[in-house]
User: Fold these one by one.
Assistant:
Number 1:
Amino acid sequence: MNETLKVDRRDAKLALAHIYVAFIALALGGLAGLLQTLVRSGKFTLPANISYYTILTTHGVLLGLVLTTFFIIGFQFAAVSRTAGTFSDRVRFWGWIGFWLMTIGTAMTAFFILIGEASVLYTFYAPLQAHPGFYLGLTLVVVGSWISGFAIFAHYARWKKEHPGQVSPLLTFMAVVNMVLWLVCSLGVAATVLIQLLPWSLGLVDRINVLVSRTLFWYFGHPLVYFWLLPAYMVWYAIIPKIIGGKIFSDSLARLSFILFLFFSIPVGFHHQLMEPGIDPFWKYVQVVLTFMVAIPSLMTAFAMFATFEMYGRSKGATGLFGWLRKLPWGDARFFAPFVGMLFFIPAGAGGLVNASHQLNQVVHNTIWVTGHFHLTLATTVVLTFFGAAYWLIPHLSGRVMTKAMNRLAIIQTIVWVVGMTFMSGSMHFAGLLGAPRRSAFSTYGNSPQALEWIPYQIAQAVGGTILFIGIILVLVIVTNLAFFAPKGETEFPVGEVAETAERTPLAMENWKLLIGITVALILIAYTIPFIDMIQNAPPGSKGYKLW
Amino acid sequence: MHIHKYEKIWLIFGIGSLFVFLTIIGVSAFAKGNQPPSCLTTIDPEKVDQTPPFNKPGLVKTGDNEYQLNMVASAFSYTPSQVEIPKGAKVTINVTTKDVIHGFEVVGTNINMMVEPGYVNSFTKTFDKAGEYTILCNEYCGAGHHMMTARIKVVDKQ
Ligand code: HEM
Ligand SMILES: [Cu+2]
Ligand SMILES: [Cu+2]
């Protein structure tokens, strides 16, 4: 089980299977996204009585939950196999079990959405009540992801045992942190689904505590976004330096930032519930403070990235304050797509701080501003980084090479995405500031003059959405080519090395008892008292409603 | 662990700004009372029509230039659907729902609340500008969600 340069063929198959499902989800979800922007422009109605909210549920579930989870787990399997050695047959076997559970769960969930039995959006807030099959499908997805998480933990434990006293490979460590984060947070959504929603939708219990269910959901919902973001940070920290020919700025600071994400990304769910009754404003503020703390590791990441770029440029003889910018490999899509993702994270992060501030949240809460925000963070920063990773990961796994023509197409794809997203997300932000609500089909609200003002922005969103859909077609062409048609050959799986000047990494960073202990302590501080309050002062529960 | 000098400067500046932001939010919330709507009153969602003040929804004068506006949300409308408010009035809006979760947004203002079954939510606002305001539901509640709306007319006092 030595460190290999190439992912074992059997492990590659497992990783690729996940990535295929992810891109199928992108194709279907992207189509739904296009339809949404067209409907919201007011110039188009869906044929055959299809409901806007069925389409929107499909989009949210396929892109927010399926594309992300499948790509992340596939990518992490590949990264762990590459840096901590080929999996044992047992680990791989459980990886496949995880894959099939997630895939069957996805198919089930999608089926009940598409037959119109689950138009509850991807957040499925009670007391809207979906078909039990919808909740069951989601349960299978989560349980499958847990099994894959434990497969990664088992492989990591074996590496540690075989390398006593050594620091684990950076990418493996990062994958383990991300799966720990996922496990700890998805306990919340599992609790509300298994203890509350499923028995209630099956008719075993009549009523549900709505606020408890929402709180469990958002205990999961915010770390969920960090579960999406951390794999992008893995690419930035550990892979991009190798692609540009530079070095990792600091191994220990990279690990420290991941540890801070583990600590601070969970006890912050109330920032999604700032406008809710039943939660004392003191506890909302406590979680707002913790929310701001989670910006710190992102500040560290920004520094590390630009330090890497500058060190590399200067080592190539760049002079002047910004001369190093010219030395970066702009024509290489493996670098260009993630780099553009990084740039978009600057306004996206600033918007996030706006959302987390009580008084400003009051202006933008549940407006289309929020949708604009996460199409920058998730649908640009994270997704462009995933695309950039796919450009070497897929050919590495499929035993092919990316041609110059495909690389050019990938550069064009990135630019198309930037243009489309600038239109769509930009106009979403503006319309949101004017009060346009999110998650709403086209409406003039009885010819309200204020609602009429939003229409030009909604048309701009449709223009942006159309351009983005072209971007989706392009990336699907590239990915299909890389998986099945590109010339056979060897593609490198780039893994960065640490700069000589960087210091040795303290082993204490892998003291999991300590790390998980602090994580749990912060969660208990942030949640115990308000959660007990909610249960003790609970109003009568709610019956289920199917209002679509 | 050693941290590079420039990184220290960057982090001190960054973390310092975060604390400035937090102080501003905190002072505004706790000292000036600009807290987000967080009413703790509960109600039986199936008995809203019998529970005061929601058994008689509408505007009630409670003091000199002070009013309560009690509103009931349900799929897919608000009761009352038209409200007249005298200009300059300080109005405490109380809202609750009879069925699922709804939103309560007054477009162009910072009135923005989640309305959840079992709870009353509440926010106080002085209406200084005459004109028509649109109330709309900004939390998905079902097929007619985007039709769920009401009007507030702020009128000059006679
Ligand atoms: C063709 C590209 C895309 C278009 C045109 C598009 C369009 C939209 C629109 C218009 C909405 C909001 C609709 C509403 O609130 O009424 C939306 C919501 C959403 N989008 Fe996208 N999107 C695209 C790509 C993506 C991608 C790549 C992701 C994630 C990886 C994503 C994730 C989401 C999520 C999670 C929601 C929230 C759904 C909800 O609020 O229930 N989108 N999208
Ligand atoms: Cu969040
Ligand atoms: Cu609604």
Number 2:
Amino acid sequence: MIIGLDVGGTHTDVVLLSNKGFIKKVKVLTNPSDLFNTVLTGITELLKGISPESIKKIILSTTLTTNAVVQQNVNPVGIVVSSGPGIQAELFGNVKHYYKVKGAIDHRGRETENINKQEIEDVAKKLKKAGIEYVAVVGKFSVRNPSHEIVIKRILNKQFKKIFMGHNVSGNLNFPRRIATAHLNAAVYSMHKEFFTAIKASLDKKGINAPIQVLKSDGGTMSLDASLEIPARTVLSGPAASIIGSIPHAEGNKDTLVLDIGGTTTDIAILVNKTPLLEPLGIKIGIYKSLIRSLKTYSKGIGGDSFVNVQEGTLVIGHERKGPAMAFGGLYPTPTDAIVYLGMMEAGDKKLAEQGIAQIANQLNLSLDDTANLIVKTTCNQILDHSMKMVERINKKPVYTVHEFMEGYKIKVEKILLLGGPAEYLAQQIEEISGIETSAVPLSSVANAIGAALARTTCEVSLIADTEQGIATIHEEDYAEPISNSYTEKDAIETAYTILKEKARGLGANEDELKEIEVIESQSFNIVRNFSPKGKIFRMKIQIKPGLINGFEKMKFDKAALN
Amino acid sequence: MLKAKNKTGLVFFPAFDWAIDPIHPEREERLLYTQDQVEEEGIFDIEGILEYKPEIVTIEDIRRAHFCVPDEKTITTESHLISAGGAMAIAKAVMRKEVETGFALVRPPGHHSMRVSHGGRGFCHINMEAIMVEYLRSKHGIKRVAIVDTDCHHGDGTNNIYWHDPNVLFISMHQDGRTMYPGSGFPNELGGPNAMGTNLNIPLPPETSAEGYLYIMENTVMPAIADFKPDIIVNSAGQDNHYTDPLTNMNFSAQGYAELTTMLKPDIAVLEGGYSIEGALPYVNLGIILAMAGLDYSGVIEPDFNPEKLRQSQAITDKIKSVSEEINYSFQRREELRERAGEHGEIQQKVREIYYDTDNLYERQNEKIRVCRDCGGALEIDSKATPGHHILAVHIPHQACNECIETGYDIFDKADTKKYDKIFLQDRPKDIYKIKEN
Ligand SMILES: [Zn+2]
Ligand SMILES: [Zn+2]
Ligand SMILES: [Zn+2]
């Protein structure tokens, strides 16, 4: 059996699944100042009456690093960058201990300026003096040649508790994001390590020896050990968990819109062939734009608790939340009040909801029923409007080849899945307005925890082979190998597959999960100088795409399964 | 974090799957390292820099600027249409005021394409800037346009299209035609009788460095633009003046390009040539983008940049000064030059031959222009390509006077379809394009 746990802002959801289906769920209150006890309580509650040996795997999605980053409650980090020509690297540092040092690598990975050992030793002294323990070392174009980062780390080594290098965070280009990402890893490293070491020790004490996996922001999992090297990948795993949780209800041949409608916000995501779309570069968290792989989600300020009011005779569903619905003791009317008033939802005080609707009805000069219906309809309309705009934006994203321009894939939504509190009450209305088949995900209130439980291990590698320079590299995995002029795309694919599988195993993947590999990008270029061919450049990105582990396809989700 | 002072739109279309042929300078690899540099710098994360997807131009769009022979489909590929569509997407974003300025980094280039196009010349098939400008004139009420071609080659295609147009100030600065393809663009090439002095050609001696370029900008280009008062400024931003370019002999730099852009403040810039794909393009493009956005570009310096080595000689400085003075003198006397160029209503004739190096064909043109004091004048072009087609093309200019409109229709109506493979009419005031054939 598998345990999936997702820490949310107010509740922490825990589920127990077997390959026959859903077994049990538990909801406990989240204590943001003591996530350790929140997680432990959740698991303890869930396992009442269940033998610990029967647990094969535990997947945790927490808000630990997210909260720390957003609240800037993290380790002070020293950042050392080497940059070379371009935008002044001084502009990217947003920490006190930020040092730009000599050394430059160009776009093909050639050294154009040496690093200066003495300069780095001086920086080390300053960092030590300032009491810095965690350092990020990042070079421009280090994913094309990490040697400067490696040398700098070697000079700094042993003087600091942990040093993160930029080329390990991602194979993607983007120097400012590389700096931010290495910074985030260094910043959350110690708290992540302490937290999960403590969780593991406590679970061990309870006789739960199952391996622990951690959910990443791309909706994939990684082992606890692997997460220590890349702790920042755990940020914002919550929204990813929900999206993964919707996948069992999607259909392979239908592009699916996933709407997670919460109290204050609606998170919008898209599944193509049961696979969530990814951000091209990485997630944005707080002030940081990063290279942390993540699912593409779009958050809009509208939900069940949005503030409903009338402006100049028109109904407005506000972006802000002014407390809970009146039906639940709030002071202002909300879409939830309309749902309660219309009798769609059993919970809530219908009398109080009616008072709220009456306020609006008076201003609009409409009957109570018409007003409530209008509120529901307007809410759905706005959510759909935001969603379709997102689809439009994705379809309009720039492409770089004639082929993609002419024949690139265009998303066409043919199914809508709803998650979150008001989901089941809005499904019919959304289907009517959009004309698209819509359903609320069963067990929607714990879809996030189910998503965590069923998520597969994911990862990506980027290979570059340059036959003129005679080298094939996947620097993010510290892989480099000499190649000859006869190197082909097939060789590139073979190498990329081998390294990707190694990486996935390192993250804790089982052999079954290694079947879901796909080539995301493959390009080759002739290198020509003075009208004569000098070699070829191959560029390839492959991944294990986000999705579900095998063996749970037949899982039942109907309400009967709850009993 | 970083924030652009001027909201700037970018179209990036490197056409990674298209080449004239595998070892041609106009090949897949051309913008590869530029893309690397732009992505590594995180350009698209800068607040106020927006990336747009190129559009694809339509046959109607092309027909505002060109007579394509035998037709648009035959002489273009999708990549040409998307490249021109890149310029178009930027122009529209600027018109919608989503951005203040924009840069289309697209390929293949277009500034060697003339009004009549039988195929490829100097890697160009259709003229991106002209297609965009004509769209803006037809759809956005733009009347006066300045096009500044800073490519190292004479922008002879754009020059040809606006040769008779007094409402477009076309300025090309380029390596002296005696030492460089296409061998034209001398100071005495000032435009036809109706537009003399709104075509300015500024040949620069080989080994001109930033000092020379910026001198010309300050002393000739910017004063002419200030005098002309265009509604928009377009920059044909070729990058082959760079000291590492394999096809040219100039000593311009990334810093120089960025400064030039800061001076010119183009509303729309469109990439043209530039074939030093590793040593120049990544840095020059970055410099131009930062300059357009109003961001600090002082760190954009080529790894092998050596200003001492690139310094221009006194002889070059003197030569540039005298060219500048010569052109300024012509520009200031442009009204007078037009008066002397011909009598209102007379028809002037010119015969010339054009070689299409990319597609290896010859074109012979017999061009007749109606000298007109009220507009750009009705234009008739008899054009025969070998191998190829024999056509007659009639152009009625934007803001044409009634007499020139009548003259144009008269020529078109009377033209004998037995004599030509096709007869075309481009009525710019009405935005109409007609074809007659047997
Ligand atoms: Zn030029
Ligand atoms: Zn050129
Ligand atoms: Zn006229």
